[in-house]
Amino acid sequence: MRRVVAPVDEQTVVDAYYGAGGDAPYELALRGGGGMLQIIEHGAADGGRPVELGRFLSAADHADAAVIARAHGTVLDVGCGPGRMMRASIVAGHLSLGLDVSAAAVEHATAQGLPALRRSVFDPVPREGEWDTVLLIDGNLGIGGDPVALLARCAELLAPGGSVLAELHADSRRDRGFAARLVDTDGRTSAPFRWHEVGRRPLPGYARRAGLRCVEVWADAGRVFAHLRR
After folding, report:
1. What biological process terms from GO does the record include (predicted)?
2. What are the strands, taking DSSP E only, across the chain?
């Protein structure tokens, strides 16, 4: 039986965070050690794409390592989740900090001894204007549903000459903002939240409007990444 998704008002979508509210399937999956989730457009019963929670909870892979190899100086991991990229960054010798709005994600990271704060990137952040590298991995360029606003905020956090390392949508032309929900295999669903998927073609325009320039795009293991510089 398909779950009926009730309509929501615009303010509910504006105020919601990734995977929060409703049945909170993201929090449940993290605390349960894994599970299958999908991110789908609000109002749709299916047609979403899988959320790779197993990869979030695993050690950094080769593609992740290639991202960290391009990091320099201090590293701020925005939407750090349970801490995979942050751990890899610290192992590589970078002073690092993670931010995430999910209580379960931050609890998982700090239980491993990783430095993480439960807050939005749009909230006050330690050492604003001093970070050398900001990470937006695992689709986190979608945070807030407004790539220009997110990248402009990252630019504020960076030191002069600092870098944003972002993961892009695999479809090079992708440029789609929508109200999304996270749904698990038991039909539990989050509150709707704003999200945006960005491929390599629209990215340079968003970067320029945010005061950044795209200096590199590369692919690794079916994933696509970009290096933006302030």
Report:
1. methylation
2. 37-41, 49-51, 75-78, 96-100, 116-118, 131-136, 158-168, 175-184, 193-198, 213-220, 223-229
| Residue spans of beta strands (DSSP E) within 61-212 | 75-78, 96-100, 116-118, 131-136, 158-168, 175-184, 193-198
Pairing relationship of beta strands 193-198 and 131-136 according to DSSP bridges: unpaired
pLDDT at residue number 46: 66
Alpha-carbon distance values, 75 to 70, 104, 106, 119, 200 (Å): 11, 22, 17, 16, 23
Degrees, nearest 5: CA angle 93-219-159: 45
**Type of residue numbered 120:** S
CATH superfamily, region 10-229: Vaccinia Virus protein VP39 (3.40.50.150)
Beta strands (DSSP E) in 16-91 are 37-41, 49-51, 75-78
The residues, ordered by sequence, that sit 6+ positions from 123 with a Cβ below 8 Å of its Cβ are: none
Residues comprising the chain, all counted: 230
With H, G, I as helix, E, B as strand and everything else as coil, classify residue 165. strand
Determine how β-strand 75-78 pairs with β-strand 131-136.
Answer: parallel
pLDDT at position 110 is 98
- Quick one: pLDDT at residue 43? 77
pLDDT of residue 4: 33
Question: CB under 8 Å, gap of 24 or more: what pairs does 10-13 form?
Answer: 12/191, 12/192, 13/42, 13/179, 13/192, 13/193, 13/194
> What stretches in the chain show pLDDT beneath 50?
1-9, 12, 14
Q: What are the respective helix, strand and coil percentages of the chain, to the nearest 5?
A: 30, 30, 40
